[in-house]
Specification:
Blueprint (H helix, E strand, L loop, with lengths): L1 H21 L3 E5 L6 E7 L2 E8 L5 H8 L3 E5 L5 H4 L2 H7 L3 E3 L9 H4 L16 E3 L3 H9 L15 E3 L2 E3 L5 H10 L2 H4 L4 E3 L11 H6 L5 E4 L3 H4 L4 H7 L4 E4 H4 L2 E4 L3
Parallel strand pairs: 3-4, 4-5, 8-9, 9-10, 10-11
Antiparallel strand pairs: 1-2, 1-12, 2-3, 6-7, 7-8
C-alpha cells in the first residue's frame, strides 16, 4: 500500500513539473519588478532574460518556468535596476550563460558575472538584432558640447520578430536603430517595451512612426512614485498603441505569435 501511495505521489509531482515548466512552451513574460526591467522569452528548453533588475525580485515566479531550463542572460547596460537580481539567478539556476555582444564591453567582475560562461552563439534567437554602432553615437554626442556623456547611450536595443526592447536607450540611439534596420523588420514590431521606463528622453515620435504595426506599448515602472511613464510619453504614444503597465496588471504573459 505504501509503495502504491509513493508511486501516485511521484506521478503527481512529475505531472505538476511538466505543467508548470513546459506549458505554454513558447511565451514572453514581462515581470512586474516595479521600477526596473526583467523580460523573459521561453522557447523549448531555454529561457532568455532581457535584463534582470528592479525593486521587487520575481525569482520564485521565474523559477516556475526556468528552473529546469538553460538560462541565457542579456544585459542592455550596467544600471542596477537592470541587473541587481543577477546573484539570485546564479544561486537559483544551474544552467546560466551570458548572451549577446554587450557583455564584451561590460565590467564582468564588478557585475559579478566574471565566472559565468559565454553562451553558444549559434543557438541565439532567430532574427535577433543588437544595435552595435556605439562608437559613432558616443562620438556624435561628445561633440555636441555636452560636459558628460550619458551612460544610457551604451544601452543595447534588442529586436526579435514582434518585440522591440530598448533598455534605457535615449532617442539618439533609437534613431540609430532606425537607420540600421530594414523597413520590413521595423514593420514587424507589434509590441514595444518603452525605453527608460517611459522617460521623456526615450520613445521618440520618429520611432513610433516607423513601427506601423505597433499595437501595444508596455512599461515597467511605477508612476505613483517616479512619475513614469512621463506625461509627454503618454501623449506621444496615444495615437500609436495601447499603454500596458506592469504596475496595473502585474506580470504580463504573451503567447508567441499572438
Amino acid at each position: 500500500m505504501k509503495i502504491e501511495k509513493y508511486f501516485y505521489f511521484f506521478i503527481l509531482i512529475l505531472f505538476t513539473r511538466v505543467i508548470v515548466t513546459e506549458y505554454p512552451a513558447m511565451q514572453w513574460i514581462v515581470w512586474n519588478v516595479g521600477q526596473g526591467q526583467w523580460v523573459t522569452f521561453i522557447n523549448g528548453h531555454r529561457c532568455w532574460h532581457f535584463d534582470f533588475g528592479g525593486e521587487k525580485n520575481p525569482i520564485h515566479e521565474v523559477s516556475k518556468y526556468c528552473l529546469w531550463r538553460e538560462n541565457r542572460l542579456i544585459l542592455s547596460h550596467p544600471d542596477r535596476d537592470h541587473y541587481i537580481f543577477l546573484n539570485s539567478i546564479k544561486e537559483r539556476f544551474k544552467q546560466v550563460c551570458l548572451e549577446g555582444p554587450s557583455w564584451k564591453t561590460l565590467p564582468l567582475q564588478k557585475l559579478g558575472a566574471s565566472k559565468i560562461k559565454k553562451c553558444d552563439t549559434h543557438n541565439f534567437m532567430e532574427n535577433a538584432f543588437f544595435q552595435t554602432n556605439q562608437k559613432q553615437i558616443l562620438y556624435q554626442t561628445r561633440h555636441r558640447n555636452r560636459p558628460k556623456v550619458d551612460k544610457n547611450l551604451k544601452s543595447q536595443i534588442f529586436h526579435s520578430k514582434h518585440w522591440l526592447i530598448t533598455g534605457d536607450a535615449p532617442q539618439v540611439v533609437e534613431k540609430d536603430w532606425i537607420t540600421q534596420t530594414p523597413e520590413e523588420e521595423e514593420q514587424s514590431v507589434t509590441r514595444l517595451l518603452l525605453g527608460h521606463h517611459g522617460s521623456k528622453t526615450s520613445t521618440s515620435l520618429e520611432l513610433l512612426q516607423k513601427l506601423t504595426q505597433l499595437n501595444q506599448c508596455i512599461v515597467s515602472s511605477r508612476e505613483k512614485k517616479y512619475g513614469h511613464p512621463h506625461k509627454d510619453v503618454r501623449i506621444r504614444v496615444k495615437s500609436f498603441c495601447s499603454l500596458i503597465r506592469t504596475e496595473d496588471w502585474n506580470h504580463l504573459h504573451y503567447l508567441e505569435g499572438l
